[in-house]
Amino acid sequence: MLKARDIMTKEVITVHPDTEVVKAARLLLDHHINGLPVVDKNGRLTGIICQSDLIAQQKKVPLPSFFFLLDSAIPLTSSKSIEKELHKMAAIKVVEAMTPDPITVGPETPLEDIATTMVKHNIHVLPVLDEGRLVGIIGKEDILRTLMSNGKSG
Fold this sequence. Notes:
- By secondary structure, the chain is of the alpha+beta class.
- It has helices at 4-7, 21-30, 51-55, 79-89, 94-97, 111-121, 140-153; strands at 35-39, 45-50, 66-69, 72-75, 99-100, 125-130, 133-139.
- The chain has one domain (4-153): Roll (CBS-domain), CATH 3.10.580.
- The protein is globular and about 65 Å long.
- Mean pLDDT is 82; it is low at 59-63.
């Protein structure tokens, strides 16, 4: 049975929280990858920035919905969630646009569990941690490549 260590990319391109969003976008495009692990100065994983995080910057400003009751306007969306969306849309640094505390897998995680996690959580890339240390990354392309190589041999 294939495990994370068998299909992961071991030479991981990373960025730091204070990296400019434009630089992260350039790395994603230049290397044809969907996501970059964000590591602190000690190399610990603090988040992940994906193409979808950067695309989110281009969406329309979310306008709150209101419910009117007895001449009072009651917001149906919390001001915190609107503020969070606006903050992400205006991001200049990776830390402002990244997804903090991403879902991760270990080197021994079976391929089936990786695929299930990706589908269940709509994730395109999964960092691989070994005792808290980033040792690899798995993208949907890695899984597809595995399926293609299995199809050729069978």
